[in-house]
Amino acid sequence: MYNQNNRDPYEMYRIKQKRKKARRKRLAFRTAVVLVVVILVAATLFSIGSCVNNLVCSSYSSGESALTDATETTSTKATKPTEPEPTIPAKVTGPVEPSFFDKTVIVGDSITLGLSYYLEKQNNQGNKPLGDAFVLCNGSLGYINAKENPVGDSNCRLPVYKGKQQPIEDSVADIGAERVYILLGMNDVARADSKTLITYVKDLTDKIIKKSPNVRICLESTTPLIASKQGPYLNDENIRKFDKELKKFAKEMDYSYIDLYSVVADDKGHLKDEYCGDPQNMGLHFNDTAQAAVVDYLINHPDGI
Asked: Which CATH architecture has domain 98-300?
């Protein structure tokens, strides 16, 4: 039987060294394995951290972009130019020079047609009592047929401008008026009650303002008839009722109201006989004396105040 104690001392030393070397190898291998594992774990953690960081940065970037877009949109909205407010000529107390009416359009029926004849005669004599005011009229024009009988209708009574019959608002815009004086109603009073007529007045003035937002509207009262020509429907009582509503409407809309009725009426509220140009006919048209009185009133009270 072999006894280990009988081994050679040198051999024993060699065996111990061999065992130490084996242990060192095992330790080195284990250390290497642990180091590899640590490196792999660290790499994995670093990769995960980078992804998370990228996600956060991406989210922040998106949020910042959205915020920037929202800010830009808000800024754009805030700096978007707005439509300028209409610049309507202010009311004037008068008296004024005839040139005040240079950019004025006077809209009317046969009474205004008479005014155009009067102004033409004055102009031919070297006078310009209303400057270069443009008269836009038709003998049978009224608030009602201005709306209900358009161009092309057999009963159209719209005025002609530069050889073309067209809506009043189009002519006013083409002329480039700053003020529009409207003397209508004589052809309407017998056709509808006062409140209904105001809806037609509003229709016409709204159309004018839409096409010419910077224009001042001046509504002239319908004028009276002579006492002997009062009819069952067309009469001074109904005209005064309409004028009352017209004045109220003008005030509500901040339009000028020109009380021509009082300028040409006698103490009983009828057209003065000395102002009537057709006493044997309709008894409502003006002669030159009446037209001169109207022009004088307009010069001294361009906005009726």
From this structure: 3-Layer(aba) Sandwich (3.40)
